[in-house]
From TrEMBL:
Belongs to the outer membrane factor (OMF) (TC 1.B.17) family. GO terms for molecular function: efflux transmembrane transporter activity. PANTHER family: CATION EFFLUX SYSTEM PROTEIN CUSC, OUTER MEMBRANE CATION EFFLUX PROTEIN. The lineage of its organism: Bacteria, Pseudomonadati, Pseudomonadota, Alphaproteobacteria, Rhodobacterales. It comes from the Bacteria. This is Outer membrane efflux protein.
Length: 201
């Protein structure tokens, strides 16, 4: 979907089933997934603060490089266990909220894909019907011109046949344009529109 490129036209598999992994290419789904992952990681951080921690500390005297000190330090959060547990519970709640948001984004993505697929499928059926109408009107126009040349048809009748043929061509062109728009919407809905290397099939 490059700027200035030719009008896209849906490939034969444009309305086929969409793999779930394609939906992960959507920026909104990616953002929700990362927020969920960060929230889950926050649970681990809050849980770790409930347990004893060991830190290693050391120093070297600037005046005498041979003088140094090194040793471990053990800390155990006894007095603030209540607040630490509250933080852990808050982290769990945040992760649960992030998971619900992620699920909502995925459902929105699925609905977008289904809507785009439905629109494209209906428009493709319409194009098939309009092509049949155009072919029929073109045949009528051809016969009308022959009849007009033989003096068997009036000019007004010939003009009516030409208008009908022109109208069918215009309707078909509009339907093809709409199909291209629906195909583009489907590519964006599946996340392909956000991949630099993606190209229409």
């Amino acid at each position: 979907m490059q700027k200035g490129a030719a009008q896209p036209y849906p490939g034969k598999d444009a309305t086929a089933g969409v793999p779930a992994n394609l939906l992960r290419n959507r920026p909104d789904v990616q953002a929700a997934e990362r927020r969920f992952a960060a929230a889950v990681a926050g649970i681990g951080v809050a849980e770790a603060q409930l347990y004893p921690s060991i830190t290693l500390a050391g120093s070297v005297t600037a005046a005498d490089a041979s003088t140094w000190s090194f040793g471990p330090a053990l800390s155990f959060p006894v007095l603030n266990q209540g607040s630490l547990r509250a933080r852990r519970d808050a982290a769990v709640s945040t992760a649960a909220t992030a998971q619900l948001d992620w699920r909502a984004q995925v459902l929105t993505a699925v609905q977008d894909v289904q809507t785009a697929q439905g629109n494209l499928s209906r428009k493709r059926r319409e194009i098939v019907a309009l092509r049949a109408v155009q072919a029929s009107n073109d045949r009528v126009l051809s016969l009308s011109r022959t009849s007009f040349d033989l003096g068997e048809l009036s000019l007004l009748d010939l003009l009516d046949a030409e208008r009908a043929a022109d109208a069918s061509r215009t309707s078909l062109a509009a339907a093809v344009r709409d199909a291209a728009q629906f195909w583009t919407a489907l590519m964006v809905a599946t996340g392909r529109g956000w991949l630099p290397a993606a190209a229409p099939s």
